[in-house]
Amino acid sequence: MKRRSVLAAGVVLGGGVVTVPMSAWAAPAPRLSAADVAGARRLFTAGSYMRFDEVLPLLLTAAEHSIEQGPAGAALAADVWALASQRAVKQGRTTAGGTYAEQAGAAARRSGNPVVLAAAARAAATPLRRTGHTDEALLLLHEAYAHLTAGSRPAAAELEAAGLVALTAAYTAAQAHRPGAARDFVAQAEEDTLRLARHPHTADRPRELTADQCVLYRIGIHRHLGDPDTALTHARRLRPAQLPTAERRARAATDTARALLDVGDAAGAFAQLRLVELAAPLEARRPSARRLTDRVAELRPDLPSLSDYAQRTAAPSDPRIRRLSPMTAATDKPT
């Protein structure tokens, strides 16, 4: 029997409505399409995590079948597993993130596509560095970068992927307190960004590798290297509105809040956390973001609106949610 696409199975990814009917699970496995993966990526980068979580199980099921459908199918499966890994990491589920990243890597190798391999390597880097395997993460990223730039004139897609790999490697090296490697990698990413800018942009989604993306990474890199003042200098240079997605704008505000806390500016950090919520409300509910809110509350419990913000961004199981009135609790749902 011919498999349906994920969209035909009752999942609308791009138009703001997501439904996964029970009948879809009993039917033949749906076929994974490029449109399905693009739609899932739009949900993720928009910070629409509740909708993303609703559709992810069906996408993962489709990915299991897609990997057997030749290089193109394997590439789509790798993209799904890489997204699943990124989502797990955002939830603080490092082990699950690593498992999904391994699946993404296996599918990417079957695809033979260096851009897909690079995305899988970037997905794997975070769980690897969080579990103390920094050398393995850097080796994986170095190999992906070398594969992308083996030719004398990389295409635009390969240049963009290479620059993003270099940024991930720079951040990984900074977390491991290797300043020389971190600075070399970020300088390479900035060079790739300049080269990419000379290529006409013909893709159907915004470029991820931009000058502002490099500045964003420098905030976190210099903070991890123990230089919050330089991190904040880059934060002042950043133009958040020029970042390509809501998720990236939220990340910029989160990293700036961390640097401000490092220098003792709790009020400034709280202002940045409010920008996180403005960019992508569910980003403000992530465990790492809530820890920043708790730190602000420890330093400056007197800040206006802080208590309301803490209640609004608390996880449903967080004891702080009990301070909400029944009416507020019933209506305070992320959009």
List keywords for this structure.
16 helices, 335 residues, globular, disordered C terminus, 0% strand, 67% helix, mainly alpha
Protein described:
- The chain is globular.
- It is an all-alpha fold and 335 residues long.
- The chain has helices spanning 23-26, 34-45, 49-66, 70-90, 94-111, 114-130, 134-148, 156-175, 179-197, 211-224, 228-237, 246-262, 266-279, 287-299, 306-312, 326-331.
- 48% of the residues are buried.
- Helix 9 runs antiparallel to helix 10 and helix 12 runs parallel beside helix 14 (287-299).
- The chain has 16 helices and no strands.
- The chain has a domain at 245-335.
Uncertain parts: 7-27, 318-335
End-to-end span in angstroms? 38 Å
SSE pattern, N- to C-terminal: HHHHHHHHHHHHHHHH
Question: What integer is the average pLDDT?
Answer: 87
Task: Give a count of the beta strands, DSSP E runs of length 2 or more.
Answer: 0
The level of helicity is 55-70%
Strand content: under 5%
Rg measurement, Å: 20 Å
The structure class reads mainly alpha
Number of helices: 16
Shape: globular
Largest sheet: none
Secondary-structure map with pairings?
Layout: H1 23-26, H2 34-45, H3 49-66, H4 70-90, H5 94-111, H6 114-130, H7 134-148, H8 156-175, H9 179-197, H10 211-224, H11 228-237, H12 246-262, H13 266-279, H14 287-299, H15 306-312, H16 326-331
Helix pairs in contact: 2-3, 2-4, 3-4, 4-5, 4-6, 5-6, 6-7, 6-8, 7-8, 8-9, 8-10, 9-10, 10-11, 10-12, 11-12, 12-13, 12-14, 13-14
